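subagent[fold] <- orchestrator: predict structure for attached chain, return tokens only, no commentary.
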Amino acid sequence: MSSRKIEMIEAEQNGIYRVKKLVNVPNGMVIDNGIIDFHERYNEDNLRTLFEECPKLRIDLEVSCQ
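subagent[fold] -> orchestrator:
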């Protein structure tokens, strides 16, 4: 079974992240305009929501800071 990952990159400001890509998301899941939004600028507070909710959605969260 392969790992389900969300890759994120750090934006211009330190501590602000955005989703780069999703890997192996379960079929039928709405991502954009849902719990995971590619256009959202994530910070420590709403990033915590992803860490809490992604396991419920069977998605593994991996944060890549670049």
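orchestrator: received. Logging for downstream: The mean pLDDT is 77. The first strand starts at residue 5 and ends at 10.
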